[in-house]
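Sample 3 of the quickstart, ligand alpha-D-glucopyranose:
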Amino acid sequence: MSDGQSGLVPGAEATAPLAKSLDILTDRRKFLLGTGLAAGALALGRPVRARAAGRTEITFASAKFFGKETMAQVVDAYNQAQSKVHVTYVELPPPSSSTEVHQALVQQLARRTGTPDVFTQDVVWIAEFAGAGWALALDQYFDASVRSQFFPGTVAACTYKDKLTALPWYVDSGMLYYRTDLLEGIGAKPPETWDDLVATAQAIQKSGKADFGYLWQGKQAEVLVCDLVEVIASNGGSILSADGRSGTLNDEKAVAAVQFLADTINKSKISPSDVLSWDEEPSRQPFTAGRAAFLRNWSYVYGIAQDPSASSVAGKVGVVPLPHFAGGKSAACLGGYQYGVNAATKNREAAIDFLTWMSSPATQLHFALQLGIAPTRPEVFEDAQLGKEQPFMKQLKSVFTGATPRPVTPKYAQVTLAIQSGVSKALVTGNIKAELDAANAKITSIVAA
Ligand code: GLC
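Result:
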């Protein structure tokens, strides 16, 4: 696969294909491990390669991602692939600790010291960071011909007031994992509506083949907003009005959707009350341990679920779009992280060179294969190896590209906390309408101001 972005940056070297960089990395590690040196360096999370004189030093802060490889290893591969720039990687908490990652970045960026030079950001922070003047506009470095190589929706999500203030990295969307063997066992098809899901989950629970019917994420955290966007949109509702000036969280459709979530615990009993304190990983674990029929989660779960060393249900897992209400349409929340360059960086050229490499087709393919995160370049979706290892990605391409965004506003940090707290209270107390009325009034006061 060719790197369509090489040569964009004046004076930048063409970047070596990632596979080649990784070979070098592997050989070097083998050598270092032989001498007993690498183990210590890796345990401390420090890059294996010593800094080389004459290189431009930049820092890169990102949430922690995990899979068959770590972000530190990918950054290390870049350091070895060229000789002009050295990147020091600063690891933040995982994306499920969204509030903490956001706080760490805001504290750094607001100082305007230029550190970190490059960062990754959740798709929901792009407007805030751009609005505050913390993110460098990237239009001149990634021109229209480069931008056209990414899905238009991800470029739109990276654009604030007509400026490209972020660069697409990966696209995430919620999806429904199910146990193929359990569904076949009762002659059921993957559900299309929430009613279908309830009926199938109950039948499987009744047969004694699974403790839980449906696992989702109800913890008072960012992921609750994601689950909420999906269930509300699948009933034709929304969180904000079309003009973004007022909340619609207490409309009939939204209330019915939240009632459905509460009912999964108290009425249909397809979900354990533990879901109210679970985010992604705690909800994923019982599923891959074979205890549940259905799970709502992101794409990273697929690789784990199909890996016999990590899962007791490998080979028995299917993925389909999430169900919808009768008369509604399936909806997936738009997630994913994107790259950003600190507006105060003193090392623009080095930052752009690094991002050119990080966003290249070869690196995107590597992230998809090793970390299970979906490319933002259509051509990478077509890769044969990806089709073999992660077939659901191509099958669900329209789910990724048609995902529903969370409210797009520079005030998202305040809006999300109001949603998380209000919806969490609604689910815990069962006073759905009253709590959503209160949360909606708060949301309106934030976005109307
Ligand atoms: C995933 C999504 C991200 C979302 C987070 C919530 O990492 O990619 O957009 O905010 O989950 O936990």
